[in-house]
């Protein structure tokens, strides 16, 4: 059983923003195979959750791990892997760990631009947020606006966003603006349990709760850091954008639950020992691992579709409130990217290109302009990276760099990262008071649950500026602009 | 620990919810873990025992049986929109060393106007999991993904 951490291990400073825990830290079996690296500025490393060092060192003990187990600057104590964890495993000798992807498979971010300025939206912000709250189901027990047959749900699992567009829930251009065109190949509905189907199917096209949200944001002139990049991504001064944060709902949660239960009792037979039972994993070449991968891809495609259906409702809501077609309002998707996912990717290890099973849990893929996976429309800029901040303090749009491949297997942060436990946040803040304070600060919030709203107060999170600056200093991702919240729909 | 204490919430994982539960025997421990799971989601006092549900599970590993039982409660919250306030659990070990669980649950459909959500549980995790016999009683520590 894992022990509560009491002190930080010795750290070797690799650069101003990279800190390393050596393999000497855990020498007994199962021992560290590679060092653990934490990306952080000095203030962030000094404030880092002690459990992050413990958990990322535990990940470094897993079979077939390559180069280093990595924690991004927004890392914090999670279950098994830290949130903000990145790990690459050899496809021949390595493993796949459902807990290293997370229960909310393909939790991710979607950013939508508009042609509207804040001056045009400001007088209508309240009816706009209220309309979106009505159109996008949120909170526990919220049901899809679609009634799909089991076969249609299976089609969603395989064809993802392509299914949505084909059925009138999106524009053709949305496809190439979604990671893996919103339909990861190799998804097999036969590997998904009947329970996952029953639990998840009614939740397609719903926002969920917790830290999931739909936010109306503004790009201020002083928050555009690279004018050329901003222009190429369709961003301009005083523009209104929309950000969505959610995942694959109960569908993904059940798939992860099913496969953790499947792998755990079999690990002894595979000769795998882990330092935390939540790191339960299977040899990548095993049938069990391949089954999980095929089911996980179903959940990933479900997650992309979930956010696509929400975009469809956002377009409907803007169209109603502004009495204009969504096309005429310029509601184009900038990008949709996952931050809880496993991917098979080629990266260089020891100067040689190898195929790896990338685990990103609370971490975002950030490929540069040269990677073939980067959509053609972003071959000049690099892949957009959407970093969701707290609902009080703002978010970022960044792009990936070509250097990211060598540095972090093309991975960067996903948000600002919690510093305060949910319970402490609830004791410290009151939902209604926070809602009023935010309104005084120009942010109109429409939430289902007040206790859950309190958990998301800005002070419960790290300073997002420090987080994105860390990865810019590491030359992994580059800031394009900061987006400030003005309206928020929360489950 | 007070003799009657059923569970207490722990603040051990920044982003998640956690609790320690107590029981005078295994049946009681499983029941108190279930109450803690429900109390994490909403105020249990507001759930009326109108709808009944039965759960039957088996596993050769007692720890896995507890996790599977609690995951059933999470599953029913999403799949059938049910929350429960009454749990009657019986855990026995057969001659073949297999653990059997039969549970009777009573609760009602989620009504957002009555059941204000505190946290939407995604899953019961194995992180820092503990299940121990202490003297005549039992205790368990559970971390929930919320």
Question: How many DSSP-defined strands of chain B?
Answer: 8
Please tell me the total number of domains of chain B. 1
Biggest sheet descriptor of chain A: 8 strands, mixed
The portion of residues forming beta strands of chain B comes to: 35-45%
Assign the CATH superfamily of chain A: tRNA-splicing ligase RtcB
What best-fitting shape of chain A do the alpha-carbon axes yield?
globular
CATH architecture of chain B: 3-Layer(bab) Sandwich
Percent helix of chain A, as a range, is 25-40%
What is the level 1 CATH name of chain A?
A: Alpha Beta
Low-confidence stretches of chain B: none
Strand content of chain A: 15-25%
Which series of helices and strands of chain B comes N to C?
A: EEHEHEEEEE
- Share of helix among residues of chain B? 10-25%
Quick one: CATH class of chain B? Alpha Beta
Give the N-to-C terminal Cα separation of chain A. 34 Å
Q: State the fourth-level CATH superfamily of chain B.
A: Archease domain
| CATH second-level architecture of chain A | Alpha-Beta Complex
Count of individual helical segments of chain B: 2
* CA-CA gap between termini of chain B: 27 Å
